[in-house]
Design goal:
globular; single chain; alpha+beta; 5 helices; Alpha-Beta Plaits; 4-stranded antiparallel sheet; 40% helix
């Protein structure tokens, strides 16, 4: 085979330290744009992103030459640096340790993009913690009794 074809879509979620609700309105818009710009410079294709007060959802078409942990570390580290350098929070900002990375097929793209873009509406009905537990159960990473 002369050509190799690769398409790996990941829905990646991470939260603020202690799930503090710090990223609102103009701050969220600035952070979103900074992450998109930085990702482009780093050859990371973000299809969809939504910054919520205490967490971020991204949909990434994963490049073949990068590892998941390195991409997440890059995006979290750069955005944290940007937030602190631009005094977007009243105190030193940091993300919580860890993240969730969930694979999806091409047929699920529109559903996940819609889910990500409608986070504000979604969180009127369900907290981030409730949402997180549902995602973990859906992917078989948490038992139904928790």
């Amino acid at each position: 085979m002369i050509h190799s074809y690769l398409q790996v879509w990941l829905h990646i979620v991470w939260r603020t330290h202690d799930s503090e609700r710090l990223l609102y309105n103009e701050k969220a818009i600035q952070i979103r744009q900074h992450i998109i710009d930085y990702a482009q410079k780093s050859n990371i294709h973000i299809e969809s992103i939504n910054v919520q007060p205490e967490h971020i959802h991204t949909l990434i078409n994963f490049p073949s030459d990068k590892m998941i942990k390195d991409v997440v570390k890059t995006l979290k580290g750069e955005s944290s640096h940007y937030i602190n350098a631009n005094n977007l929070c009243p105190k030193a900002f940091s993300w919580a340790r860890g993240y969730g990375a969930f694979s999806l097929g091409h047929s699920q793209l529109d559903t996940v993009k819609n889910y990500i873009s409608n986070q504000s509406e979604h969180h009127k009905r369900r907290s981030f913690t409730e949402e997180w537990n549902i995602i973990l159960k859906r992917y078989g990473l948490q038992d139904e009794n928790r």
